[in-house]
Amino acid sequence: MHLSTDYLVVGAGLSGLAFADSLITHDPEAELVVVDRRTQPGGHWADVYPFVRLHSPSAYYGVDSMPLGSNRIDVDGPNAGLYERATATELQTYFADVVEKLAATGRVRVLLGHENLDDGHLRDLATGEVHELEVRRRVVDAGYLEVSVPATHTPSFDIADDASFVPVHLLGDHVESSSYTVLGAGKTGVDAVLWLLDHDVDPERIRWVRPREAWFMDRARFQPLDLAVDSLEGFAADAHAGATAKDQDDLLGLLEDAGRLTRLDPTIPATMWRGAMLNDHELQRARTVTDVVRLGRVRRLERDRIVLDQGEVPTGGALHIDCTAHGLRNAPPTPIFADGRIVLQQVRHKTPPYNAALLGFVEAKRDDDETKNRLCPPNHYTVGVDEWARTVARTWRTEGSWRTEPDLQAWVAGTRLNLLASLPQHLGSERAQQALARYVGHVGDAVANLERIAAGS
Ligand SMILES: Cc1cc2nc3c(=O)[nH]c(=O)nc-3n(C[C@H](O)[C@H](O)[C@H](O)COP(=O)(O)OP(=O)(O)OC[C@H]3O[C@@H](n4cnc5c(N)ncnc54)[C@H](O)[C@@H]3O)c2cc1C
């Protein structure tokens, strides 16, 4: 088979689909082929643990042209008072619908179960057939930050054949163990702990291996629509901390005092910041597990002992739950727009759907790569909190540079992927005006001060 297209998008995960959706909306001529090795769309969401949910609200996740969920505020349960968050099954259905919608335009062809060979050819992974593909404009790399999840990754430590070990997505089948050890300090580790607690496992039967501590963001301050003022207050707190912090330690202290960053154990220094969100309810429950092993990373898991960087502990017969996959890859930054190529990366920090759709818009609406790269410099996705200053300053500096780009500003104001899109409807309240004044009053100084702090860290 010989195919010909304007754009080849490599990756039918959230990023590839959000880019494709945005590009065909804003460029009425563009034709795309989207290819993915997986046989289902949605990227890593096809392989997640069944009890995962978005950590952020559905209202600003997905592709721009198709809402996800019904913009409902949960009235009960652990997310009460906050906007709904899609489950894995809802996300899988959603991405299947997105593919159907894109295909119905007649301008997008999605080839699942196909691998891009990077030499003008695609391989059908079911049949082994290789197809020639002519790309008239660009290849879009939507797998540069490809996600790694426990179901598909290879753990970075040795596992003895007789060790008691499961990846987190198989947890349900093994719930009858007398005790459990959760491996991993990130959001997946928190989810595994909460799942065990939800299934009436006593916290004393849970041990938690946390090689390093993570910072989490408070979901209550990343709310869209009717709760957008809560988010604005959060950003105002960021701007205040950014403008007034003396150094990196002071910055973290201010952010923690303002509730912008939070950690499981406030007595232990935390270094990791992947951008995962928790609410207070989840945080308090996770804190009930107090048997925490802090001896570095696991090197080897055996039936009777765990060997770690800085020592070993007996397993006590526990079932070990793997939550150690790294999530989004922190690949080095590279220009997003280059000859014949687009490499999807972050522009605004920690918002993959917004970034992918933004890049689709800019590709459609600007002519030359110099302008596109000026408007959308890559904002390196990193996992260390020492990068908070750099990455937040870069977001604000970049978005500030859009002041002279009315169509881009209009896109930002109108996209449902922008969590503050509804803010203008709420600016009548005194609370909103105070938050806005605080934000505007500090953000300029914050950029300069955060860049100074970043240069020193
Ligand atoms: C558990 C979890 C929860 C998350 N929750 C949120 C959240 O609530 N909110 C939020 O904003 N973000 C969240 N994230 C971040 C999340 O990673 C992104 O939102 C998004 O799903 C990432 O999509 P992606 O398309 O960039 O990557 P992926 O999902 O990794 O998709 C990349 C795709 O590219 C394909 N591919 C790569 N190379 C090739 C090739 N050569 N040929 C063919 N196909 C190829 C891969 O098969 C893969 O399917 C979460 C991440 C994780 C791990």
Give a short overview.
This protein is of the alpha/beta class and 457 residues long. It has eleven helices and 21 strands. The strands form four sheets. Strands 1, 2, 3, 4, 5, 6, 20 and 21 form an eight-stranded mixed sheet that branches. A five-stranded parallel sheet has the order 8-19-9-10-15, covered by helices on one side. It has a four-stranded mixed sheet with strand order 7-16-17-18, with no helix packed on it.
Draw up the topology in text.
Layout: E1 2-10, H1 14-26, E2 32-36, H2 88-104, E3 108-112, E4 114-116, E5 121-124, E6 130-141, E7 158-159, E8 165-167, E9 180-183, H3 187-198, E10 206-209, E11 213-218, H4 228-244, H5 248-257, E12 261-263, E13 270-272, E14 277-278, H6 280-286, E15 291-293, E16 298-301, E17 305-308, E18 311-314, E19 319-322, E20 337-338, E21 341-343, H7 352-365, H8 369-375, H9 388-400, H10 406-414, H11 430-456
The structure holds flavin-adenine dinucleotide.
Residues 10-11, 13-16, 35-38, 43-44, 48, 52, 54-56, 61, 115-116, 142-143, 145-147, 149, 188, 327-328, 351-353 line the site of flavin-adenine dinucleotide.
Pfam families: NAD_binding_8
Protein name: NAD(P)/FAD-dependent oxidoreductase
Sum up the structure in keywords:
NAD(P)/FAD-dependent oxidoreductase; 457 residues; 5-stranded parallel beta sheet; binds flavin-adenine dinucleotide; 11 helices; Rossmann fold; 8-stranded mixed beta sheet; alpha/beta; FAD/NAD(P)-binding domain; FAD/NAD-bd_sf; 21 strands
